[in-house]
Amino acid sequence: MEKYKVLLVDDEAEVIEVIEQRIQWDDLGFTVVGNATNGVKALELVEKLQPDVVITDIKMPYMDGLELSRRLNRDFQNIHIIIFTGFDEFEYAKEAVHLEVEEYMLKPINATELSDCLKRLKDTLDREREEKLNVTRLENYFNAALPVLQNNFFVSLIEGRVTEENCGKFFAAYQIDMKGPYYGCAVFHTSEHHVPDGMNPLLLAMSVEHEIKERLATEWKSRVFSYLGNTLMLIELSSEDAIVQFTDSCDRFCKWAYRVMGAVVTAGIGRVCDNMANIKTSYDGAREAVSYRVLYGTKRAINIAELAPKEQETTLQPEDTRMHDLFKAIHLGLKEEIEKVVVNEIEKLHSNAQTVSQYNLAIMEMVGAFYRFCANNFLDFNDHLHGIQNPYETIPQMDESTLTAWMQGVSVELGEQLKNARNSTSRRLVTDAQNLVRERYMEPDLSLDTICSVLGVSNSYFSSVFKKETGKAFITYLTDYRMDHAATLILETNEKSYQIAERVGYLDANYFSYVFKKRFGVSPSKYRAQHTNQ
């Protein structure tokens, strides 16, 4: 075992020499690593040699032993101190008990007494070393287990099992540095049904998670972990608007994953929250956004806050959680799925009700859930009752088949209404973008990013909606609009090509000519000549 290091300090070199020679240092488990003749020199050597024990005289020039002890206690609290004193200094030295000196010994030094003192000191040092080793072992174990502890904590967060009061405590205990002020959650779903030949679906999902950590987690301050077969990413945001840029980053990743890895990845982005204790809300939204891939497609990011109508952030009532599957199906608007879920709901309704009173109460709770769902989605449930005047009174009287047919009809109708609202909002978004193009097409820096920034939506969502509504990408639409306007200017004015280029947003006349020729098949000058001669 490594021996404990000793530094000897005395202004008399002969005393140091005698001590070194008369003590069996090796046998006692110590080794002398240096000596000094005053306290100042001793401090320099302590810094350099890092001894375990300092044996010092009191009376020394420049800095006496008591002052040296004070400095050691302040700056090197792990060092043990033994003080030598003359008889006339002994009472004075004993008064300095606050210095936490290990032993006071009278000069001249008795080798046997000093050896006994060192034996006792070695026992103390051995215990301290063992304690340090235990602490180090525990720290190593804790650090090794820390990633698992952190992941378990994050799972507890998204499941809503951590209170706001305890959140900060766990952040400190698990060394998590996420100060916000805003947070969000993304769920990455890797399809098991579209896997490259010879690739294991689980291995592909693990590879996707690795790339998320390598690519996205280095761009955004975040924590990445697995949960229920998906990869989750909890992000820290400097502003609420930053979620738009994050959505675009996720969208680029999904497209890269398909192009390079052959993985069909859909990223669902939840709503922003201002407290990590409420991240469950963002997670629920992210999971809901992933389910919209049946409407908006895979290999892309879907931000739940950008879908229309924008659902109000309300907490489900206890009686509404039972209807979650039906409401989700209504949102997606798939007729067959809605009808199937309604049948399941009716079966559960009849199997769970033990008495007529229980059945009637469950029916009224179901009607109330429909009213709340419609209110949260800016619909009036009274407009979809199919002629029923008092639903709370009439619906409980329906038999099973009538109730099933009624619920299917109402639910499908609500799904259509929501789909129409989404389409209406999409059309309005596209119209706003087209108006912006008409107003600002002459600006050279007008781009997809500019439009999305003005409209407050992500590039991925806007591009998807614009292509769906117009049949062409936004950049193609902008270019065509500029070229059509340029063609009109060529025929109606005598301006030079470079002047027209500037008027339609092109600073480079050569590039303008290249784009124009690509659009019309001829250069601007030939286009003018052809149409002038007609």
TrEMBL record:
Domain HTH araC/xylS-type: 431-530
Compartment(s) of residence: Cytoplasm
SMART domains: HTH_ARAC, REC
PROSITE patterns in the cross-refs: HTH_ARAC_FAMILY_2 (PS01124), RESPONSE_REGULATORY (PS50110)
Lineage: Bacteria, Bacillati, Bacillota, Clostridia, Lachnospirales
Signal peptide (from-to): none
Pfam families recorded: GGDEF_2, HTH_18, Response_reg
Positions where 4-aspartylphosphate occurs in the chain: D57
Keyword field: Coiled coil, Cytoplasm, DNA-binding, Phosphoprotein, Transcription, Transcription regulation, Two-component regulatory system
Name of the protein described by the UniProt record: Stage 0 sporulation protein A homolog
Organism: Coprococcus hominis (ex Arizal et al. 2022)
